[in-house]
Amino acid sequence: MHGIAVPASIVVSEMQFPDEVAVDPSAVARRLLEAPGRDGETSFVEVDEVRGVRTERTVAADAPGGGELGSRRVDYIVPVPGDCGRWVGVVFSTLGAGDPEDELADLFVELFDAMMTTFRWSRA
């Protein structure tokens, strides 16, 4: 961004249930939404007309799973259409300008959410 490194990352990963396990995407999404221990703000979200779950949380510096600096994390967990055993997780993390609650972190989260509105499924 204008020659400055942006302290943010996006990681996309696939999760798959074993073939013998019948999985209802709505039930999994509800379970994720209601899961105890999920810190942060969790809500249902639509990604290219597929219902998933979005979680936003702040991780303090030196907290378990944290680092030297605190970070703001946003997770989107969405089932793959037509294959209820496969899910995609899109995880965003930013340090902001050193404070995960600062205005820069807010702008980066807003940008990531805007990017997720453009997410489309495509079969190769």
Summarize the structure.
The chain has one domain.
Describe the structure in your own words.
With 124 residues, this protein is α+β, with helices and mostly antiparallel strands. Helices cover 19% and strands 39% of the residues. The protein has one domain. Strands 1-5-4-3-2 form a five-stranded antiparallel β-sheet, with helices on both faces. Strand 2 (41-47) and strand 3 (50-59) form a beta hairpin.
By DSSP, the count of extended strands is 5
Question: In total, how many domains does the architecture comprise?
Answer: 1
User: What gap, in angstroms, lies between the N and C termini?
Assistant: 32 Å
Count of DSSP-assigned helices: 2
Content-based structural category: alpha+beta
Strand proportion:
35-45%
Q: What gyration radius follows from the Cα positions, in whole Å?
A: 16 Å
Write the SSE topology.
Layout lengths: L7 E9 L8 H10 L6 E7 L2 E10 L11 E10 L2 E12 L8 H14 L8
Antiparallel strand pairs: 1-5, 2-3, 3-4, 4-5
